[in-house]
Amino acid sequence: MEKKIGSKEVEMEVVKDTDQPQKLSYGQLNQACAEMSQQLQQQNKYIQQMHKQLQEMSFMLQNKRMEYLFKVVEIAHKSPLSDYVCFAKDFVEECIAEIQESLTIPQEEKKEETPKED
Q: What letters, b where the CB count within 10 A reaches 16 and e where it falls short, cover 42-60?
């Protein structure tokens, strides 16, 4: 495109803005892939750390819950059996049932296979 400025003609190049992304070379692609792989490894390591921390917190929470359940039962049995001062009788019974359930090791059911008769 030519434009006349004063007495001189100046040639101007029109640059069109295209939406096409710049093509990367093999080396650039390889480098980008390596960076993404490293980021993924870091994120996986972080996720594993968070998972481990979640398991530890869950274990601590379960232990604390058991302590409180035992405390409820202890307080209830120190008071006269006919008169639960701090806790309702149903609540104490639920606590006892939960303690028993938590302390009971689940046993796998033995499946007896019966032979098929043809």
A: eeeeeeeeeeeeeeeeeee
Q: Contact 64/71 with Cβ under 8 angstroms?
A: no
3-state secondary structure 94-114: HHHHHHHHHHCCCCCCCCCCC
Distance CA 75, CA 98 (A): 16
Element (H, E) at 43: helix 26-78
| Euclidean distance between CA atoms 78 and 56, whole angstroms | 33
Whole-angstrom distance, CA of residue 99 vs CA of residue 73 = 10
66 vs 75 pLDDT, higher one? 66
The model's pTM is 0.55
Confidence of residue 13 (pLDDT cuts 50, 70, 90): low
Between CA 107 and CA 104 the distance in angstroms is 9
Return the H-helix or E-strand segment holding 2: strand 2-5
